[in-house]
Design goal:
The complex is a heterodimer of chains A (190) and B (296). With 190 residues, chain A is mainly alpha-helical. Chain A contains 8 helices and 2 strands; from the N terminus they run E-H-H-E-H-H-H-H-H-H. Chain A has a two-stranded antiparallel ribbon. Chain B is built from 14 helices and no strands. About 18% of the residues of chain B have low confidence. The chains are: A mainly alpha (190), B mainly alpha (296).
Chain lengths: 190, 296
């Protein structure tokens, strides 16, 4: 059964790519730049989307083109994230699972999920690099850093939670940030 | 900052606004990448199967989605906000919904300033480009379309502005650190910017962690010397009231540093002195930032 916002394409010409590009490319570029962080990779991502759209077996229902394209773009971004991992980070398995779950319950363009090796957007290498830098922190530094930036706890709550002086918490987090920054710079992420 | 998540304001009441501005900016992907790295640690430590651990947007904000699209993240309760901040999947869904909703609230936001992320190609030498050769896309070589030109011009302008700012920054690597540089006090700007500039300079205290009591002494002496320079500087960016406030505060901070140096002379436990010096610096940084916020 086709997803609710797509219908089977009756012929190759049913998706007017040029018309879609003219109307939606600026919007897609804006979204892609926010996802990728730079115009070059965003352009690659959008180009990849158009290539997939051209080869799809499903077409958007009339009036649903915008949502169809934007959701497709996000799915492509997630897909591209999971094929370039040099070292597994569990989140990407989660992203993949989540993405596949969404396929079953929400409108989807029905485009091929096969990645194009030329397209590199989602900063997977960056995530891996950051993970490696986090692994190098002292245990207390990592613990406080996680509580502050992942659990979003203010310093004072961390101090209460860990029975540590407020200044120690703040200084430990600060030094952990400096170490991460330097570690990322050594890995080429400025 | 190469980790955008570290820009998360420490004050909970400012975090929603910050996240909103990131989500509508080119820093959003970077933020999701940062959260992904932290999340991978959290999942490992909690031994939760990752596929069972990360909820989607609907599961996190549920019926509040309409409110979020209309009014942003500030109406969201604290627990929900935290869950959202932990989920790159949900945040990317939210970005999508924001784009699709064309919400006037979200359109009115000012994106956070962020330099362009390195492109995949720029990252190639270290990030596996040899595994993934750039073969050239049928369409991507024809990037000379108007949209791309505009984005490249914007990116180039941002880069140029950044370079200009760096070139004009009154600092040289070999001239000491923190306030122990006369150039720090030469910045001419509005008062809040100047006070934040002083706070950032003081922040350099944390760039090195002393490994011995002698190193701590050396750092404290340098900071104390910086206080003297601050007391003597004319601070042309400040009016008389703010100048007096700054000098008065600086006297108090100087006395604390003097006390800490004296305790080192008495061979007190230097790690305790370090902790207190850290606290003093953090407090003075906070005081400068609070004053700057009050003046805005």
């Amino acid at each position: 059964m086709p997803p609710e916002s797509t219908v089977p394409c009756l012929d190759e010409d049913q998706v007017d790519i040029d018309a879609l590009r003219e109307k939606y490319e600026p919007m897609l570029m804006r979204f892609a730049i926010n996802l990728c962080g730079n115009p070059h990779d965003a352009e690659d991502l959008v180009q990849d989307l158009w290539r997939q759209v051209a080869s799809t077996q499903s077409c958007p229902q009339a009036g649903a083109e915008q949502a169809w394209l934007m959701k497709s773009l996000r799915h492509r971004w997630i897909d591209l994230g999971r094929y370039r991992m040099r070292r597994p980070v569990t989140l990407f398995n989660d992203l993949e699972t989540r993405s596949n779950d969404e396929d079953e319950r929400s409108p989807d363009p029905g485009v091929s999920r096969e990645p194009q090796p030329e397209v590199r957007c989602f900063q997977r290498e960056r995530t891996t690099a950051l993970r490696e830098c986090l692994d190098k922190l002292q245990e207390l530094q990592r613990r406080f850093l996680m509580l502050h930036f992942f659990e979003a706890l203010p310093h004072i709550e961390i101090a209460d939670h860990c029975d540590a002086p407020l200044g120690t918490v703040a200084a430990t987090i600060h030094r952990a940030k400096v170490r991460i920054k330097e570690c990322m710079e050594r890995k080429g992420w400025t | 900052m190469n980790v955008i998540l570290f820009d998360l304001p420490p004050e909970p009441e400012r975090q929603a606004e910050w996240l909103e501005r990131v989500l509508v900016s080119p820093a959003a992907g970077q933020l999701l990448s940062d959260i992904a790295a932290l999340r991978s640690i959290a999942d490992e430590e909690s031994s939760v199967a990752p596929e069972a651990s990360e909820p989607g947007l609907a599961e996190i904000i549920g019926e509040q989605q309409e409110v979020v699209l209309r009014e942003g993240l500030r109406p969201v309760d604290r627990a929900t906000f935290r869950r959202l901040l932990q989920s790159p999947v949900a945040l990317s869904e939210l970005m999508l919904e924001i784009e699709l909703s064309d919400s006037p609230y979200w359109r009115s936001l000012t994106p956070v300033l962020a330099g362009p992320m390195p492109t995949a190609a720029e990252r190639a030498p270290e990030a596996g480009a040899s595994e993934v050769p750039k073969t050239g896309l049928p369409d991507s070589d024809s990037r000379a379309n108007g949209t791309m030109r505009r984005w490249f011009v914007a990116a180039a302008a941002l880069a140029a502005a950044t370079l200009l700012a760096i070139a004009n920054w009154p600092d040289t690597p070999d001239s000491g650190w923190g306030w122990d540089r006369q150039e720090v006090f030469a910045l001419r700007s509005d008062a809040p910017t100047y006070l934040r500039h002083l706070a950032s300079a003081a922040d350099e205290w944390f760039q090195r962690t002393p490994a011995t009591d002698q190193e701590l002494r050396s750092r404290l002496v340098a900071f104390r010397r910086g206080c003297d320079k601050l007391l003597a500087a004319p601070h042309p960016s400040l009016n008389a009231t703010d100048r007096d406030w700054l000098r008065e505060r600086c006297q108090v901070w100087s006395e604390k540093f003097d006390d800490q140096l004296a305790r080192l002379d008495r061979s007190d436990d230097w790690s305790v002195v370090l902790r207190e010096a850290d606290e003093t610096v953090l407090k003075l940084i906070q005081a400068l930032r609070d004053r700057a916020d009050d003046l805005v």
